Amino acid sequence: MKTPLSNPALPALTGQSPESLAAWLKDAGEPAFRAAQILEWVWKKKVTSYDAMTNLPAALRAKLAESFRLTALEHSTTQGSADTTRKFLFRLHDGRYVESVMIPANPALYGEKSDRRTLCVSSQVGCAYGCKFCASGLAGFARNLDASEIAGQVLAAEQLSGERVDSLVFMGMGEPMANLDNLLAAISLITGEKTLHLGARHLTISTSGLVPQIKKLAEHPQQIRLAISLHGATDDVREQIMPINKKWPVAELFEALEYWNSKKKQHLTLEYILIQDVNDSLEQAAILAKKARKLGAKVNLIPYNTVEGLEWKRPPNNHCKAFQQILQNAGVTANLRLEKGHDIDAACGQLRLKQETAEGIIEAPMKR
Ligand code: SAH
Ligand code: SF4
Q1: The dihedral of CA 150, 155, 160, 164: what is its sign?
Q2: CA angle, corner 243, sides to 237 and 245, nearest 5?
Q3: Is it the case that residue 366 has pLDDT exceeding 80?
């Protein structure tokens, strides 16, 4: 399905909160009850044209079309099929690209039932944090996504697949915590009763560890889940692969996580990519076990997905299992996914990297 962007200079209707839409209607001299009708067409019936909004007068439809693009995302390509992971690539109004990944039958990784569909959502074009193993950070940072571009990924994935998304992980391209205002505006569209109406408990934000933002989000009233990209249990290991660790080392990060725990009911998740000979020593496992236990956090172990142009490798399966066993022996819940099936073109960020490189928007990334 192609959803052409009518006029890229206009704001997207999918970025309007119920309040801002009501204000617009008032300014336009339209009755207030139109807001509910418009929101229903956009978010519940998920129409892809103004013409489909048949209970609106033609004049209002024309006014809407003059003021708003219907959507911020133009569908570019889909990889994968319904019973596997599907990856959607979207073109933005300025010619940049983002991707979202729909993962069926998520095996209870983020507290969901196994017959559920999870969408992995991007929050930025590129990423400024430069983790050395990650495709999203390889070509640097381009820009933040706005609320319509973030929430619009969920709407578009539902339109394209014809299926309902049950839960979201903000684990696509970008660092969601570095785009917190737009993220929270998007979350209010995603969770709002008149808009997408997904429960906050079904949303997981993943962060590489922005301490002030973690503390700020801890104060947020909604019960959003938090996952931390740890990938190293000590400063010496973590700072080799995650430059952010220099700014907010492990001890400060864990202090912020304790604060999060004091404010929130849900358990934290620690994500730990296993990269051969980089962070996969059994000593790291033992330190990780201690820290996870103290925090009451569960651990998701993710054998590294190879990234084109990078030399990192995943450890052999039996080594991954030994790492997991140390955590389990310490009484920590530790998931390990060994099958590679869920990744088309490996990790998130790669599809966009390929597309933008092919179009000459960015240079082919080099190994750091
Ligand atoms: N910036 C946020 C969210 C996006 S990254 C963060 O870092 O948490 C989402 C997750 O994918 C992170 O845990 C990240 O470390 C992981 N990831 C990145 N590249 C990967 C790769 N090649 N293989 C496996 N996981 C990867
Ligand atoms: Fe950015 Fe997250 Fe990738 Fe690090 S892992 S470069 S923070 S997207």
Answers
A1: positive
A2: 60
A3: no
Q: Give start and end residues of each alpha helix (H) in 82-164.
A: 135-138, 147-161
Which residue is closest in CA terms to ligand 1's atom 13? Answer: 229
Phi and psi at 18, nearest 5°, equal -55, -35
What average pLDDT score do residues 225-242 get? 97
3-state secondary structure of 137: helix
Strand partners, 270: 228, 299
Strand partners of residue 87: 79, 101
- Would you say the C-alpha torsion 155, 156, 160, 166 has a positive or negative sign? negative
Does residue 348 carry a pLDDT above 60? no
**Statement: residue 108 has pLDDT above 60:** no
Contact 219, 181 (CB under 8 A): no
Considering only CA atoms, which of 88, 65, 51 is closest in space to residue 6? 65
Angle (CA) 302-303-305 rounded to 5° is: 105
Q: Is any atom of ligand 1 closer than 6 Å to the C-beta of 21? A: no
Residue with tokens 């604060």: 259
CA of 48 to the centre of ligand 2 (A): 32
Quote the ligand 1 centre to 171 CA distance (angstroms): 7
What is the 8-class DSSP label of residue 227? E
Residues annotated as catalytic (active site), given as ranges: 99, 348
Share above pLDDT 70 across residues of the chain, in percent, rounded to a whole number: 86
